[in-house]
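Example 3.2
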Amino acid sequence: MLFIFAALAITLLITPDKTNHSLTSMDNIKLSHSNIALAIKTKYDQELGNLANYKASHYAARIYRISGTTSYLPYNLQDLRYMKDRVEQLLQVAHDNNEVKYSSTKPSKWLAKANDSSARIRAELRRKSLDIAPSLPYYLSSLSILRRSLEYRICYQPFDQLKEQVLAHDYTRSLSDPSLIKAWAAQLANIVIWIKQLGGKDYSDVFLGALQAVYPDDQDKLLNIQQYENKIYGLTHMILASSQYYQYHINRDDFAGIFEYFDNNIDTIISRAKADVVAEVGIAYLLASEHDNPAFEKAKQNIAQQYDETYHMIPSIDGTFDISAGAHRNILAIMLLSSPQQLYPGPWLGEIVDNTQLPQGMNHCKQS
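Structure, written as tokens:
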């Protein structure tokens, strides 16, 4: 339990802060990276109650992992209640053999949420990919629930039932088909790592081989922005998911090929990719404890330069400042610019909160 209170390295990021920190550059004083991280965090603390449950719990878990603070746990407990309802729905879908029907409802939502040209291209590619893997969205939804149950260290019998069903599925075609790689690289990387973490088959070589075949390094110049960012996302998510999303440091040697690519192409990545992608590359170095790597510093500097002092956010590629749509990008910026030396696994809700606060039937489970 002591680890919860040991976040001395980044004390500025410890508790939800509802005050308004104005960090405009008076007298041309340049803001430090940590001050930018604090300003963005303060902005999101003020707006946290307005975010959808998943985004609020997503934010809460990540702030916990870089600070150890328990101040945001109510959002994670709310996520558990959502997960309980969700796992029952997913099991019913499987019972009724409706995985394909469930997945077929997703394309209209993807298109509705697409707010730039790359997002619209991606949404259309994903719609077409269902011709090859018609149940993929169902399995992604299921794995997302199971992944969070691992991260929270919560046991619940329906999770075990869903896990058995999900691990029985063969993902080889989904993880190797070029059409799916072009539409889902980041999500497929997640699938690879999550299945492995759940005790299933290791598809790493299948996926990375297919990703390299679709996007050979010597043909990067031929890729449009959506294709290029999709490739980088596939690489970063192999690392981020392996860290159990910022809970543990990783060993660079386990991802030598990916880091070599980042080392050699960091300037191109920064010049071509949006802030979300650049931040994920920077965080990959953070997770490898390579604080002195020039690529890490370049990524931090690029993100810091995109910070807007009026809105206290990193804007979208088209200059908008939507709190919800920008949550992913700005949470990444907080983590990258605060650059914590220590990470805090969890939050392991069964250990931190009283069992009476957990949804009925759920309990803490010890995992190696």
